[in-house]
Write a structure and sequence with these properties.
- By secondary structure, this protein is α/β, with parallel strands linked by helices.
- The protein has one domain: HUPs (Rossmann fold, 3-Layer(aba) Sandwich), CATH 3.40.50.620.
- Helices cover 41% and strands 28% of the residues.
- The chain contains seven helices and seven strands.
- Strands 5-2-1-6-7 form a five-stranded parallel β-sheet, sandwiched between helices. The protein has a two-stranded antiparallel ribbon with strand order 3-4.
- Strand 3 and strand 4 form a beta hairpin.
- Helix 5 packs across helix 7.
- The radius of gyration is 17 Å and the shape is elongated.
Length: 158
């Protein structure tokens, strides 16, 4: 069945809402089967805005700033994967930079994942068009199954 599951996380409670479904899936598959869960965090903003008076300008992060951001994402992914490790699941982490949907698809191909499991806000209609949907882009571009888990009502995107 599924032996490598890629789980994109963005640091929010909404993003983490796919994890309980993965834990249930692993419980069902793990009986005699080795399941690897690959947690991926994508750094999408490579610059920030500096405001001086009424003027503002985009400024690229320095290498030190990017290194700090990367370290924080790595720490978050490691901590988030602890509950899966307690169930004897092989957990790996990936931190990449760029367009989130592109990086998720690339990671699924590079790792040989056979399932992508990710959460969705459940937006539709104009809200979906206005905000776009990383999940939707991954769903339509992936060559492997995508499990979409809708975030529970009232989940705050922290």
């Amino acid at each position: 069945m599924f032996s490598k599951v890629l789980v994109p996380l963005d640091g929010s409670k909404v993003g983490e809402s796919a994890l309980p479904a993965i834990e249930q899936l692993v419980d069902k598959l793990a009986a005699g089967t080795t399941v690897e869960v690959i947690l991926i965090g994508v750094i999408t903003l490579l610059r920030h805005w500096v405001v001086v008076g009424e003027a503002s300008a985009p400024v690229s992060y320095t290498e030190d700033e990017l290194s700090l951001i990367r370290h924080r994402v790595e720490t978050y992914l490691a901590k988030t994967g602890e509950s899966l490790k307690k169930k004897n699941v092989d957990v790996k982490t990936i931190v990449s930079t760029g367009n989130a949907a592109d990086e998720i698809i690339k990671a699924s191909e590079d790792t040989g994942a056979d399932l992508i499991a990710m959460s969705t806000h459940g937006r539709s209609g104009l809200r979906r068009l206005a905000f776009g949907s990383i999940t939707d882009k991954v769903l339509h571009r992936s060559h492997i199954p995508v499990l979409m888990v809708r975030a529970p009502e009232g989940t705050v995107n922290e």
